[in-house]
Amino acid sequence: MASKQSLIPIVSKAFCSLSEVVLVVRRRPHVVNGGGFVVTDCTQIPIFSVDGCGVLGKKEELLLRDANGNPLLLIRQKGGIVEAVSITRKWKGYKTDFLGPQKLVFTLKEPITMCLLNKNSIRICIESKELSNYGDFEIIGDFSDKDCSIVNSRGDPIAQIGVKKEMEQVMKSKDLYYVSIKPGIDHAFVIGVIAVLDYIYDGSTRC
């Protein structure tokens, strides 16, 4: 069991658990409610939701909400293909409740050309001095096949994305998959990263 010292509250310690947690991601159809996806626990109790441009009306912008619909993370893309000094697009995740100033909590670096993608190409930097000793995180595997992990600087998985056997029939439409999150890891951070991956790989968060 993890100790309090091992919690990594990138968004909030309220979203950290002392035990491993499995969450289920279900994509929402564009024609019904603008796309995005809903995240539940294994008993189908809603935990998070993610709105993309079909709801927000803005491309390259995502909003993570808690179970009550309160905003937690506003994620925006910075730069683009014509950015001369960078070979990546940067996605900035801001902690927000719309009542105070936004606080940058992570940056995800996406290769501009998809053919450059490899198992170490997508990196996530934590923008917190208090958590700087944890280093960068990376995406290993293939998110488009829902078979990948988020790993820490030592190569240890902090979250794994996959499909259970009982979900395989549903997964033919790529509408349902699970996320297993290790003890101490911020669930909201992990789902925020998945929201960006969904957008990059032309998922339900895109218009």
Structure characterization notes:
This protein has 207 residues and is mainly β. It has 3 helices and 12 strands. It has a 12-stranded antiparallel barrel with strand order 1-2-3-4-5-6-7-8-9-10-11-12.
Characteristic key phrases:
single chain; mainly beta; 3 helices; 11% helix; disordered N terminus
Distance between the termini: 42 Å
The largest beta-sheet arranges its strands as 1-2-3-4-5-6-7-8-9-10-11-12
Uncertain segments = 1-5, 81-85, 114-120
Order of helices and strands: EHEEHEEEEEEEEEH
Layout of helices and strands, plus pairs?
Blueprint: E1 21-27, H1 30-33, E2 37-40, E3 46-51, H2 53-56, E4 61-66, E5 71-78, E6 88-95, E7 103-111, E8 123-126, E9 137-142, E10 147-151, E11 157-162, E12 176-181, H3 187-200
Antiparallel strand pairs: 1-2, 1-12, 2-3, 3-4, 4-5, 5-6, 6-7, 7-8, 8-9, 9-10, 10-11, 11-12
Could you write a compact summary of the structure shown?
With 207 residues, the protein is mainly β. The protein has helices at residues 30-33, 53-56, 187-200, and strands at residues 21-27, 37-40, 46-51, 61-66, 71-78, 88-95, 103-111, 123-126, 137-142, 147-151, 157-162, 176-181.
